[in-house]
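FAQ: What does the model actually see?

It sees only this:
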Amino acid sequence: MQKAGSPYLLFLGDTQDTLSIKGCTGVKIWRPEKAHAQIVLEGGNQDLGLPNKTPSEAAAAGCKTMLVGVANAGGFVPDNWVPTIIEALEAGMDVMAGMHTRMADIPAIAEAAAANGRTLFDVRQPSQEFKVGKGFERSGKRVLTVGTDCSLGKMFTSLALEREMLAQGMKATFRATGQSGIFIVGEGVAIDGVVADFIAGAVEWLCPENDADHWDVVEGQGSLFHPSFAGVSLGLLHGAQADALVMCHEPGRPHMRGVPGRDLPSLEDCIALNEQMAHLTNPTAKVVGVSVNTSSMPEDEAMAYLDDTAQRLGMPCCDSVRTGVSAIVNELAKI
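And it is asked to produce this:
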């Protein structure tokens, strides 16, 4: 797969809130060596604490890619962003974005890229075709993050696992399946942009055969219990052919995200169903730990919840921020 070059110039645009720049924020947190500079347009108020540079200044300083790691309602490229994108291409940088609107479909941007021999990375739309999944046994080890709901920390947990595994001397590679993850590592497959029949095959392509002691850490999406996204979650389970699963959860949610009136499943039910579905392509797959997002809980309440859940389920229960994930990685090392 073609990989976006780094370091990056992080395009913050004219955004007004921190959630809108989460793609750029993820790079700053997880791959700070890639985050060289930022550019803010008139009207924008976000700041990641990086040097402010124009595209020409950033290119002269060695930046290879301008990352448009921002989101807006509708996922389109506003007209006032186009001149800056063109300026980056003319300065010699590639441009990476995850909008619903493809940069390659905007004539002025496409023409500038062609004229300057630069690459447009529209990460939300896969650039290659995939085969259907086969579920054939393949070498290497894989761990997949799964969840009781969507948007509760599967990417964060996956990156924390990779970091801890590398710190412990294990071979590990984070495999991105969403646009923010792709921004962070510069490659991957936005799995929600893959035609349903080919989701499992896309994941097999993303994490192919590897050394017997190498771990692919596959970023999960959605939840088997979420009526909107269960299809994607199931395809990921089958394609990952995971040896281990890590269950992600956020206590206190009143309902499934975006679906009022639908309760979250119990951890026990979610663990059982994910293991059952994973056994189609790996009969020995099992949940080895739980990653809990306790950010809304005070410290004492959070630690009590983690301890109680670990005892009830008989497996490590961590918060990737409060406690780290070393206890879960210790379980992976036994496989």
